[in-house]
Amino acid sequence: MIPMTLDTIAQVVGASLDDVRDPRALVTAPSAVDSREVVPGGLFAATVGARVDGHDYAAGAIAGGAVAVLAARPVGVPALVVEDVQLAIGLLARHLLEHISPTVIGLTGSVGKTTTKDLLAQVLERHAATVATDRSFNNELGLPLTVLRADATTRYLVLEMGAGRKGDLTYLTGLAPPQVGLVLNVGTAHVERMGVGPADVAQAKGELVEALPADGFALLNADDPYVRGMAGRTRAQILWYGESAEAQVRAENVRMADRARPAFELVTPSGHAQVELGLIGEHQVSNALAAAAVATALGLGVTEIADGLHSARRRSAGRLEIVERPDGITIVDDAYNANPESMRAGLRAVKALAGARRTVAVLGAMGQQADASRARHAEVGRLVADLRFDVLIAVGAGDPLAMAEAAQSSNQGVAVHTAEDVAGAIRVAAALLEPGDVVLVKASSEIGLSVCARALAR
What we know:
Layout: E1 4-5, H1 6-13, E2 16-18, E3 26-27, E4 43-45, H2 58-63, E5 68-71, E6 79-81, H3 85-97, E7 103-108, H4 113-124, E8 130-132, H5 142-147, E9 156-160, H6 168-175, E10 180-183, H7 191-194, H8 198-205, H9 207-210, E11 217-221, H10 225-228, E12 237-242, E13 249-256, E14 262-268, E15 271-276, H11 284-297, H12 302-311, E16 321-324, E17 330-333, H13 340-354, E18 359-363, H14 373-386, E19 391-395, H15 399-409, E20 415-419, H16 422-432, E21 438-442, H17 449-457
Parallel strand pairs: 4-5, 5-6, 7-9, 7-10, 8-9, 10-11, 11-12, 12-13, 17-21, 18-19, 18-21, 19-20
Antiparallel strand pairs: 1-3, 2-6, 13-14, 14-15, 16-17
Helix pairs in contact: 4-11, 4-12, 11-12, 13-14, 14-15, 16-17
Main location: cytoplasm
Binding site for ATP: 109-115
Domain Mur ligase central: 108-295
């Protein structure tokens, strides 16, 4: 954040000052929407959610060091009062970008955004000052909050961009126009809000490459037919990545190293280098190639990219997060989110990690799967059986029961159990686990199975 006075911010966002004694007071630190994350010198944006009204926490934010509150109404403490807090925080972010000059990198996709963003940030920050999206703060609030962490020293601004519906990426790229755009893949996440199938998801995701300038770069996954179809929607120079032979940034000789960590030969226009990732699962190869493609477009050499990928580690919780218990039980927490693609990747990664050890899958519902939801849950159940998991615990009523029924009817020897809710899942799993087990816990975030993962990890 570049230092700005309260009266300057008020002019930028169209705010009136309320209970402000000194309009020249400086905001010198980033903004926050959670009063517990306020830092001295920052702003607190009082947003209204489904369960919590940030205005109720305004006094606590000021006590925690916030200079003022960005609010939709007076709150009894220094405030910048606006009609729409979300719009205002976006305007402030756009104003900041007009006064600094980082290279803005936008990335989107149905799965793998956060992991790819974390890999890319770790490659780039070895080269120059880099600010990247925290956790999965990739929406209309999260993106401007990330921008507001940048300052005049920031060289690279890596922005994860989520899209729940058509038009979302047009809005986000309007707040932070990217010079570099990365599209990972097109899957079924959010399909019920975007249309009836992957083509509708592709239409929404492609808004990112449409926003790129003619002198920018579009990094496109050559292995995904829907992403390949975006080539005609951008003015930018295209750099292809993937395992396809025609990809300019590609992986050759892919293999699984110790503890299910993928290794491969990275090929870029600048040469070849060996990479062994610190993350588990063969699907991480595509995420690593995506990060490598961006770094290549920015001018980094293959050795520098490979070194960054090799040293990179998981940064965001709930994504194949491994906890080893003293009794030899391994808990793999992948409960931040779920869709059919990430379910398949998680199940295969855990099976590879386990080797000959007993495997347990604690799985809940995948959200936003529209009319195909029951069928997609059944497909997951069949995959659990086909991969020869020893135990499946299906959590919740409705679609998870289709998962359980499909696994049971596959007659592959998987022991199927059900639990009504998260508390039930903890009880069932705790009673079934044996020393040496490898346990995958996964569902869409709203199911709350991360609580189960934490409980089992203790």
